[in-house]
Amino acid sequence: MGCDKVNQMTRTIAVAAYIIVFLWLYHMQLGSIPLLLLAIYLFYKSYQEWKKPARPYIQEETETAEETPSVKRTQKKAGIVT
Predict the structure, then answer these.
(1) Using CA of residue 65, residue 71, residue 74, residue 77, what is the dihedral sign?
(2) pTM, whole model, 2 decimals?
(3) CB 27, CB 18: distance < 8 Å
């Protein structure tokens, strides 16, 4: 739980620093440099997301044992009482 707060605080500080550098470079007529760096960063993050292993598909347990023949039955069948 504490790690999430540290990550959020780190991201907030990084965004604030990025905005300050962006404004400083923009006033020096170099506004395209931060935009290029932002594009590279976003490309990197999207590539990381794309390369993540897929989450396994979990099928809902709505099927019963009678519907799926691959499931072995554990109960005995009722015998005929005469």
Answers:
(1) positive
(2) 0.51
(3) no
Q: What is the pLDDT of residues 44-75, one digit of tens each?
A: 989 998 988 877 777 665 555 455 555 555 66
19, 34 Cβ separation under 8 angstroms: no
Residue 58 token pair: 């979990």
3-state helix, strand, coil in the chain (%, to 5): 55, 0, 45
Separation of alpha carbons 18 and 2, rounded Å: 24
Amino acid in the structure at residue 7: N
**Are 14 and 27 in contact, with CB atoms under 8 Å apart?**
no
Number of neighbours of residue 62 by Cβ within 10 angstroms: 6
Kindly state the average pLDDT of the residues 35-46.
Answer: 91
